[in-house]
Amino acid sequence: MVENRPFGNALAHFILIAGVIVIVFPVYMAFVASTWDAATIANGKLGLVPGPHLVENYTRILFEGTGGTTRAHVATMLLNSTISAVIIAVGKIAISLISAYAIVYFRFPFRMAAFWLIFLTLMFPVEVRIYPTYKIVADLGLLDTYTGLSVPLIASATATLLFRQFFMTVPDELLEAAKIDAAGPIRFFKDVLLPLSRTNIAALFVILFIYGWNQYLWPLLITTRDDMQTIVIGIKKIVAVQDALTEWQLAMATAVLAMLPPVLVVVLMQKLFVKGLVETEK
Q1: 3-state SS assignment for residue 167
Q2: Using one digit for the tens of pLDDT, what is the confidence trace for 230-244?
Q3: What is the pLDDT of residue 10?
Q4: Is the dihedral of CA 59, 259, 155, 193 positive or negative?
Q5: I need a surface site. Which of 7, 58, 67, 68 has the fewest CB within 10 A?
Q6: Under a CB-based contact definition with an 8 Å cutoff, are residues 223 and 44 in contact?
Q7: Mean pLDDT, consecutive 10-residue segments, the chain of 282 residues?
Q8: What are the distances in angstroms from CA 98 to CA 155, 170, 186?
Q9: How many other C-beta atoms can be found within 10 angstroms of the C-beta atom of residue 269?
Q10: Which residue, 213, 221, 250, is CA-closest to 235?
Q11: Cα Rg, the chain, nearest whole Å
Q12: How confident is the model at residue 209, as a pLDDT?
């Protein structure tokens, strides 16, 4: 029986609404700033109501470019970020699934040593291996390519660990039943483990997509052409103007557009994402 406490419910709703306002208000102000001109923002006259330059500002950054430190269109930057983030997320999940499956269900020499070597890579920050990785990518001629932008980031010890822990909870009876039905390793993986891992895959996809979308250091090193820049690099270049006034309305419009794909992914996969995080029994 749930106790009816009007005061407690009202307090909980008040705290929830206050938290939403705190989080959403800066985003709303970024949207408002993106609809005004540079003079209004520079003079500190920005209000709480959207301005008259919404279509003009968004059309300019999407199809004409900023014309300042970067000449790339934001539409191109969004495409680059989306492609690299999808490749990173799908690649991490695919490699982690296969490696975790091999570690749990195959008996080979130094199996646990291989797992601990994978796990130990969590201790090394990206900056430690950034130079050798860059050297390899440069020697292979992969600068300013989607392959060079994405492939070096698809290895994931965290996802391998999570899938390993989940595979260890799968009952052995399923494996025995698969053997009785003459199902080989590939069929057992495809028909049994993958369907059971659906919610885990969805939750990891959301997390890894946002991880790939927010990458800054690696795209900064690996891209030299404007048409290969990601949206995070584009925002930085719009803001980092040395001898001219920063066009904050364009920077805010770019930031607002940069938030839309991750938000869309979270909204579309919300149910599977939450289920994958909280579900403990399969």
Answers
A1: helix
A2: 999 888 888 766 555
A3: 84
A4: negative
A5: 7
A6: no
A7: 68 90 91 87 82 88 68 85 94 92 86 83 78 90 90 86 88 85 86 88 91 90 87 83 70 90 88 65 44
A8: 12, 16, 10
A9: 17
A10: 250
A11: 24
A12: 94
The answer to whether residues 88 and 153 touch, using CB atoms and an 8 Å cutoff, is yes
Dig out the tokens for 249 from the structure: 């309305």
Which token pair is 281?
């029994």
First to last CA, the chain: 28
| Amino acid 92: pLDDT | 92
Q: Which domains does the chain have, with CATH numbers?
A: 54-278 (1.10.3720.10)
* Paired tokens of 193: 């483990």
Angstrom distance (rounded) from CA 89 to CA 30: 28
What confidence score (pLDDT) does residue 85 get?
94
Distance CA 97, CA 94 (A): 5
How many angstroms separate the CA atoms of 194 and 191, rounded?
A: 6
| Site of tokens 């495409």 | 79
- Cβ partners under 8 Å of residue 99, min gap 6: 118, 160
Q: pTM for the full model?
A: 0.86
- Per residue in 208-238, pLDDT (tens digit) is 999 999 998 899 889 888 888 899 988 888 8
| 177: number of Cβ within 10 Å | 13
Q: CA torsion, points 52, 54, 55, 61, in degrees to nearest 10?
A: 140
3-state secondary structure of 169: coil
